Amino acid sequence: MAMYELLERLATRPESYSSMSIKELWTRPHIARQMLEYHLDQDTCLASRPIVVIEEIVDWLDQELELTGKRICDLGCGPGLYSLRLAKRGANVIGVDFSPTAIAYAESQVSPAGPRIDYLVADYLNDVLPGGFDVVTLIYYDYCALSPKDRRALLSRIYSMLNPGGSLVMDVVADNAFQETGEQLAIEERLMGGFWSDSDYVGIHRTWLYPEQRLSLDHYAIVEPSDCWEILNWMQYFSPARLAKELEEPGFAVRALTGSLSGETLTDVSNEIGVIADKCSSDER
């Protein structure tokens, strides 16, 4: 990409969802390795939650869904932090992620003496996926990074993957967190401490807000000596009513809305929303 074109794009607030590049955040080899480190780092929540919180989430899901014997598909499983713990509760788990780096790590953590977990390198928006699941999980705000069109398509796919009466488990960022987000512009040598490349680079980070849509965009431009490229990371914020409406359109009935997937009470100051939604039969819709 030409430098002028890149700077022009950074200087102009783009139309919402006009460009999508989130997949590169997980599949560029250097960034994929960095993302794996962030997943495993217990001192940051940039890619996943601390293990103690993940354990609390799996505890709550076990109470609500009785995981033993359930067939579960963990979409966007990353390095298997949830998949492994769901399997340890007696579930039959398939983990799906489009990052070969993350899946390779997840597979390395499966012990021959432990529960079996099947992992699949696949794009859950586009690739063929198995069906016949009792539970599908989509955890740590994956849903928020998708365009409205992709969200509708994904919910329809999940609906078809579930057995009658099966459940979708996911979490989103709440409207309240949007109030804590601000627009910014940062230009730094080796932005984020070398996260974007193992060579020299200058990183530019611009955050745009779309208040009428409760939407934000983190727009990153990476300028290396011989190349320049960008990442656009969209984040949709949800009210409980908006989330319920999107789930009801393909045929889900909301069973529980919580302030987190560990079962906290949802309040006006909650920064996230956890949800369990059940697949309705055609007679119930």
Can you put this structure into words, describing what you see?
The longest helix has 15 residues, at 51-65. 31% of the residues lie in helices and 31% in strands. It is built from ten helices and eleven strands. It is globular. Strand 2 (92-97), helix 6 and strand 3 form a beta-alpha-beta unit. Strands 1, 2, 3, 4, 5, 6, 7, 8, 9, 10 and 11 form an eleven-stranded mixed beta sheet that branches. 34% of the residues are buried. The protein is an alpha/beta fold and 285 residues long.
List the helices and strands and how they pair.
Blueprint lengths: L2 H9 L12 H4 L1 H12 L10 H15 L5 E5 L5 H8 L3 E6 L2 H9 L8 E5 L11 E6 L9 H14 E13 H4 L5 E6 L1 H4 L7 E9 L4 E10 L2 E12 L1 H9 L3 E7 L13 E8 L6
Parallel strand pairs: 1-2, 1-4, 2-3, 4-5, 5-9
Antiparallel strand pairs: 5-11, 6-7, 7-8, 8-9, 10-11
Radius of gyration based on Cα positions? 19 Å
Mean pLDDT: 94
Rounded to the nearest angstrom, the distance between the terminal CA atoms is 49 Å
Low-confidence runs: none
Helical content class: 25-40%
SS-derived structural category:
alpha/beta
Percent of sequence in beta strands? 25-35%
Give me the strand/helix succession.
HHHHEHEHEEHEHEHEEEHEE
Shape: globular
Q: Biggest sheet: strands, sense, closure?
A: 11 strands, mixed
Number of strands: 11
Number of helices: 10
